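Why this split exists: single-chain examples teach little about how molecules sit against one another. For that reason, every record in the complexes split bundles all components of an assembly together and asks for one structure covering all of them. Below is a record exactly as it appears in the raw files.
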Amino acid sequence: MGNPVLDRRAAEVGDPDSLELRALVADMRDTLDRAGGIGLAAPQIGVSQRVVIFYVPDDSEDRPEDISDLTLRVLVNPVITPIGKKQEEDWEACLSVPGLQGLVPRYTRIRYQGLDLGGAPIDVEAAGFHARVVQHECDHLDGVLYPKRLKDLSKLSYVQEWDPISRSAAEEEAVV
Ligand code: NI
């Protein structure tokens, strides 16, 4: 957060089947897997191009327990269209905003379109956690980090502070 590459609109990819794009996606996958994350956008590794990768949950309505079984999706030049106006808030974290989490409103149902690595079209309807991940990653391509989406800055916290156990300990200390 604070690096200019994360604040600007990333460029469209011209050729979705180039060696350069394959190398970029391989770098992104390395970074994502080392960090144990669920999604990553190219600007997060300093490349201002419209590419995101993410693990697709099998059950789009539920937060996955274990990402190791999930399929990695590469999405180039994505376009998101909300389905309906309903939004829900849930906690998000981001590899570009380490140590923090925030309560972020997102559309509950979306359609997303784009190209995969190689150029085949992708056209998917997604809901729940799947839809949230795609919205979070694609925001990176428009220079938007999730704290900009918060309605209430009191819902931005250090992950460890929000842990229910450490939170109750901190409150006890404050009372004493
Ligand atoms: Ni992020």
